[in-house]
Specification:
eleven-stranded mixed sheet, globular, 15 strands, Pseudouridine synthase, alpha+beta
């Protein structure tokens, strides 16, 4: 039987470090099962192959603020595999082209990345959860049906090369040994990092796809504050883990308000 949190620790908001593998919905399922609460949701999907910070809201007071939490800036670490383009813009897809990769000077890559900083239009990827007539785009893509959605205006605040790949991200990337770059992205709502990876590859003239992705920041919160999502599988252990990581709705809203006020105009 699911065990509820004690009354003195009411349901609220949880910071979860999602591992590679499970879907964001699966993490929600683990928490719902551990707490015995039906109303549980998250504030921003991570693809199954991605890891990192997932903000999960449990209980009606918390789930009502999900839309407010979605507007926070996010930060990602990503590994781009150069020279190979796929139909999904990540390593899970079918290879559609392979091109040689020159030995780029660092300044060339820096200049390329600088073009993407600021507000610009981004085409939504065919394999995404964006809806068309009530169905996600990936539903049509898997059936070979092309749906043209208009480009969306997005904001990228910071974009730079990371010289040393963090160990966790390297582990997520697996054993691929092709040419690659690691980037750090700080962006607003609605940016598809897969599409950014593909666009950077095209701008460099060699193509690219996303090899690994880790969300490190969501609004005012850092993944270093999160509880280990791998420990949520067992409901009893999950309850203990969650008790140590609960945040109140008031605390979370205050933190997001402070983060929003601190953003540069």
């Amino acid at each position: 039987m699911p065990v509820k949190l004690p009354e003195e620790r009411p349901p609220g908001v949880f910071l979860i470090d999602k591992p590679c593998g499970p879907t964001s919905f699966k993490i929600v399922h683990y928490i719902r099962k551990a707490l015995g609460i039906k109303k549980v949701g998250h504030s921003g999907t991570l693809d199954p192959f991605a890891s990192g910070l997932l903000i999960v809201c449990a209980g009606r007071p918390a789930t009502r603020i999900i839309s407010q939490l979605m507007g926070g800036d996010k930060e990602y670490l990503a590994i781009l595999r150069l020279g190979v383009s796929t139909d999904t813009q990540d390593f899970t897809g079918r290879i559609v082209s392979e091109r040689p990769v020159p030995e780029f000077e660092r300044s060339v890559i820096d200049q390329c990345l600088s073009r993407f900083v600021g507000r610009h239009y981004q085409m939504p990827p065919a394999y995404s959860a964006l809806k068309h007539k009530g169905r996600p785009l990936y539903y049509y893509a898997r059936k070979g049906i092309k749906i043209d959605k208009p480009p969306r205006l997005v904001t990228i605040n910071e974009l730079e090369i990371v010289d040393s790949v963090p160990p966790r991200l390297r582990l997520d990337a697996g054993s691929d040994s092709g040419p690659e770059i690691c980037i750090r992205v700080r962006c607003g709502k609605g940016v598809y990092i897969r599409t950014l990876a593909a666009d950077i590859g095209e701008a460099l003239g060699c193509g690219a796809h996303l090899l690994a992705l880790r969300r490190t920041v969501n609004g005012p919160f850092n993944v270093n504050e999160a509880v280990d999502g791998e420990r949520l599988v067992n409901a009893d252990e999950a309850l203990t883990i969650l008790q140590g990581g609960i945040k109140s709705v008031e605390e979370v809203l205050a933190a997001f308000d402070h983060e929003t006020a601190a953003r540069p105009m």
